[in-house]
Design brief:
This protein is 47% helix and 17% strand. It has 109 residues and is α+β, with helices and mostly antiparallel strands. The strands form two sheets. The protein has a three-stranded antiparallel beta sheet, with no helix packed on it. A hairpin with a 4-residue loop joins strand 4 and strand 5.
Length: 109
């Protein structure tokens, strides 16, 4: 049978079946619903009051990364367009002109 343990600070260590838990581990009745945001207070699991802030920061980081990938995609498209124009002997397009052209194209869709 699996037994669940926390450390002296109430941080969940995990469930142990046949392996021995770490020394000084304290057995608890059940695992937390979400170990990252809960600690054991001696009788029950208590949710971290900063959980919302942590999740919001993660969402912001994800949005920033998606935006970064989007900017990279635009830069790749601009580079490809300028290479084609150079091969055709035509002048290249500035990033500003490229953006204006793409926005105009989006409005037609």
């Amino acid at each position: 049978m699996t037994k669940f343990f926390v450390d002296v600070n109430g941080v969940y260590l995990g469930g142990f079946d046949s392996a021995a838990p770490p020394t000084d581990a304290i057995e608890v009745s059940a695992p937390p619903n979400h170990a990252e945001f809960e600690t054991w207070d001696g009788t029950q699991w208590i949710e971290d009051p900063n959980k919302g802030d942590v999740l919001a920061n993660r969402e912001y980081a994800g949005a920033f990364e998606r935006n970064r990938i989007g900017r990279l995609t635009v830069q790749i498209a601009l580079n490809a367009e300028n290479r084609l124009l150079a091969l055709e002997g035509k002048p290249t397009v500035s990033p500003g002109k490229h953006r204006i052209d793409r926005l105009a194209l989006l409005k037609t869709l």
